[in-house]
């Protein structure tokens, strides 16, 4: 039985691919947006329900073509949009590359916004549909040297929160997924800018510390997998009572508690330093 038509962005690998495959197994026709169509054809093979399409979310023509294809399969509006495409950038703010940061925003924020503009009008007119934003627990807290990425996810959450209030009234649901660490190739795709990798950089000790902290975090057995995230998305889409915001993984829940329970930002930063085992000293107390 066909459950409906979905579009998933950033489905070349990782969470996007696992989500596209989970939705297809569950009966959706999934317009599966990938940047490298040849690679995806090889890696996906033939799978019922998977319709591969070239979709770089920074390319308006790709968006128009992907949405037109999805509408060809749908009787009415597209049932589900999963805005997943995204990547990170690391760099100190004093010299991180702002051109690279703007490019990242084009994908993480403006690409997602353009997908919403392409899909939501038909959902609103039909009075049904779901938009899933793959955000991050890093849309509620920040790590040093990752500020540009967090800024893009904070902004994405702001748009999604506002969207949920704009379109909920018309019967369109918005769900934000906020995972902690997910074991994917995400770190390999992370763009390093500025001088963080220079051993003489004043930020080199922090960078080394952070890499070790992220590495140990990835080894935790409560970190999510692409498949477990996809399962959370599947369950949320199928649960009419799903909350607007879903924290994914015990690691993310721990960080979420640290944000909510800390008396002030200093206490939160201390808890985060403990979580990541950072030696990097905090700001000295005021004299
Ligand atoms: N991994 C984590 O720890 C983690 C934690 C919290 C949130 N997230 C979020 O989860 C989402 C998925 O990440 P992941 O872990 O699955 O990472 P991933 O394995 O690196 O996959 C990211 C996917 O996004 C695609 N992509 C990048 N830029 C794009 C663009 N302009 N247009 C379309 N697709 C684009 C990549 O395409 P190519 O295959 O062509 O490179 C890739 O398929 C991201 O939004 C990320 O911010 C990840």
Topology:
Layout: E1 4-8, H1 14-25, E2 28-34, H2 37-44, E3 50-54, H3 60-73, E4 80-83, E5 89-90, H4 98-126, E6 129-134, H5 147-167, E7 172-179, E8 182-183, H6 186-189, E9 191-192, H7 204-219, E10 224-225, H8 226-238, E11 245-248, H9 250-261, H10 265-276
Parallel strand pairs: 1-2, 1-4, 2-3, 4-6, 5-9, 6-7, 7-11, 8-10
Helix pairs in contact: 1-8, 3-4, 4-5, 9-10
The structure holds NADP nicotinamide-adenine-dinucleotide phosphate.
Residues 9-10, 12-16, 35-36, 55-58, 84-87, 107, 111, 134, 136, 179, 181-182, 184-186, 189, 226 line the site of NADP nicotinamide-adenine-dinucleotide phosphate (NAP).
Features:
287 residues, two-stranded parallel sheet, 16% strand, alpha/beta
Characterize the largest beta sheet: strand count, sense, and whether it forms a barrel.
7 strands, parallel
Q: State the domain count.
A: 1
> Over the alpha carbons, how many angstroms does the gyration radius reach?
19 Å
Q: Which descriptor suits the 3D outline? A: globular
Task: Name the CATH superfamily classification.
Answer: NAD(P)-binding Rossmann-like Domain
Q: Which range best describes the helical content: under 10%, 10-25%, 25-40%, 40-55%, 55-70% or over 70%? A: 40-55%
CATH architecture: 3-Layer(aba) Sandwich
Structural class given helices, strands, pairing? Answer: alpha/beta
The fraction of residues assigned to DSSP E strands is 15-25%
CATH class: Alpha Beta
- The strand count comes to 11
> Distance between the terminal alpha carbons, to the nearest Å?
68 Å
Q: For the residues shown, what is the average pLDDT?
A: 96
The bound ligands are: NADP nicotinamide-adenine-dinucleotide phosphate
Here the CATH topology equals Rossmann fold
Number of helices: 10
């Amino acid at each position: 039985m066909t459950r409906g038509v979905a579009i998933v962005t950033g489905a070349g690998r990782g969470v996007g691919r696992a989500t596209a495959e989970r939705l297809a197994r569950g009966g959706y026709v999934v317009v599966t947006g990938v940047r490298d169509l040849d690679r995806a054809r090889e890696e996906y093979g033939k799978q019922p329900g998977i319709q591969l399409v070239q979709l770089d979310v920074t390319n308006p023509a790709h968006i128009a073509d992907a949405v037109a294809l999805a509408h060809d399969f749908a009787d009415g509006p597209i049932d589900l949009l999963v805005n997943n495409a995204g990547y990170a950038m690391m760099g100190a703010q004093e010299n991180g590359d702002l051109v690279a940061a703007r490019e990242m925003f084009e994908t993480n924020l403006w690409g997602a916004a353009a997908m919403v503009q392409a899909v939501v009008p038909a959902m609103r007119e039909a009075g049904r549909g779901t938009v899933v934003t793959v955000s991050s627990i890093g849309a509620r807290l920040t790590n040093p040297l990752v500020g540009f990425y967090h800024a893009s996810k904070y902004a994405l959450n702001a748009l999604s929160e506002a969207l949920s209030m704009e379109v909920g009234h018309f019967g369109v649901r918005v769900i934000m997924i906020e995972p902690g660490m997910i074991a994917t190739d995400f770190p390999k795709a992370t763009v390093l800018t500025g001088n963080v990798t220079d051993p003489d950089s004043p930020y080199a000790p922090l960078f080394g510390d952070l890499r070790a902290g992220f590495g140990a975090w990835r080894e935790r057995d409560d970190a999510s997998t692409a498949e477990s995230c996809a399962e959370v998305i599947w369950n949320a889409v199928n649960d009419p009572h799903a909350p607007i915001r879903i924290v994914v993984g015990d690691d993310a829940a721990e960080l979420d508690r640290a944000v909510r329970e800390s008396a002030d930002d200093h206490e939160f930063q201390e808890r985060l330093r403990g979580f990541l085992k950072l030696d990097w000293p905090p700001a000295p107390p005021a004299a």
